[in-house]
């Protein structure tokens, strides 16, 4: 795939990440594409859904499975704004996606090479093609802006409690 094509779909994923932000969730978005057609979309919703597995990638993979009526998501590419965690990377291997494209690296929990490499582990029964760093600055900025906002909100709340 070419860089312009990957950037197009990553911008779509960034739009989904904004939906997460608007819902008070960590802004991560994911879009699952097969033959230039969206078959799954997701954004982080673990807080609102009271579900630790409601990560953007999991939501997109679940929707893709329903669209294809198959748990195998062959010939698909998943675009996600943040490097997947162990759970999401494992789901990608089990679903047999062909390719993962992600934006920002996650050195704390990333399982596509930053902390662990689940997707490229030689013992896995399926290897996922990987392309990282697409619109990385925009993806990382959205996350850091979100957490900066949350810190400022908590600080304002503490100050209000002290004054009240």
From TrEMBL:
<protein>
    <recommendedName>
        <fullName>tRNA-specific adenosine deaminase</fullName>
        <ecNumber>3.5.4.33</ecNumber>
    </recommendedName>
</protein>
<dbReference type="GO" id="GO:0002100">
    <property type="term" value="P:tRNA wobble adenosine to inosine editing"/>
</dbReference>
<keyword id="KW-0819">tRNA processing</keyword>
<comment type="function">
    <text>Catalyzes the deamination of adenosine to inosine at the wobble position 34 of tRNA(Arg2).</text>
</comment>
<feature type="binding site">
    <location>
        <position position="55"/>
    </location>
    <ligand>
        <name>Zn(2+)</name>
    </ligand>
</feature>
<comment type="subunit">
    <text>Homodimer.</text>
</comment>
<feature type="active site" description="Proton donor">
    <location>
        <position position="57"/>
    </location>
</feature>
<dbReference type="Pfam" id="PF00383">
    <property type="entry name" value="dCMP_cyt_deam_1"/>
</dbReference>
<dbReference type="GO" id="GO:0052717">
    <property type="term" value="F:tRNA-specific adenosine-34 deaminase activity"/>
</dbReference>
<feature type="binding site">
    <location>
        <position position="88"/>
    </location>
    <ligand>
        <name>Zn(2+)</name>
    </ligand>
</feature>
<dbReference type="InterPro" id="IPR002125">
    <property type="entry name" value="CMP_dCMP_dom"/>
</dbReference>
<feature type="domain" description="CMP/dCMP-type deaminase">
    <location>
        <begin position="4"/>
        <end position="115"/>
    </location>
</feature>
<dbReference type="InterPro" id="IPR016192">
    <property type="entry name" value="APOBEC/CMP_deaminase_Zn-bd"/>
</dbReference>
<keyword id="KW-0479">Metal-binding</keyword>
<dbReference type="InterPro" id="IPR016193">
    <property type="entry name" value="Cytidine_deaminase-like"/>
</dbReference>
<dbReference type="InterPro" id="IPR028883">
    <property type="entry name" value="tRNA_aden_deaminase"/>
</dbReference>
<feature type="binding site">
    <location>
        <position position="85"/>
    </location>
    <ligand>
        <name>Zn(2+)</name>
    </ligand>
</feature>
<dbReference type="GO" id="GO:0008270">
    <property type="term" value="F:zinc ion binding"/>
</dbReference>
<keyword id="KW-0378">Hydrolase</keyword>
<comment type="similarity">
    <text>Belongs to the cytidine and deoxycytidylate deaminase family. ADAT2 subfamily.</text>
</comment>
<keyword id="KW-0862">Zinc</keyword>
């Amino acid at each position: 795939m070419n860089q312009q094509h990957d950037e197009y779909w990553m911008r779509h994923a960034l739009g989904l990440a904004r939906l997460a932000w608007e819902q008070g969730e960590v802004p991560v978005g994911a879009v699952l594409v097969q033959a230039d057609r969206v078959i799954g979309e997701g954004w982080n919703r673990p807080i609102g859904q009271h579900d630790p597995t409601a990560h953007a990638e999991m939501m997109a993979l679940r929707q893709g499975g329903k669209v294809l009526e198959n748990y195998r998501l062959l010939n698909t590419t998943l675009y996600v704004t943040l490097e997947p965690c162990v759970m999401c990377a494992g789901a990608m291997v089990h679903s047999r996606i062909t390719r993962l494209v992600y934006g920002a690296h996650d050195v704390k929990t990333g399982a596509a090479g930053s902390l662990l490499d689940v997707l490229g582990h030689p013992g896995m029964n399926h290897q996922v093609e990987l392309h990282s760093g697409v619109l990385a600055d925009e993806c990382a900025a959205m996350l850091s802006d979100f957490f900066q906002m949350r810190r400022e909100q908590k600080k304002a709340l503490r100050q209000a409690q002290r004054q009240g």
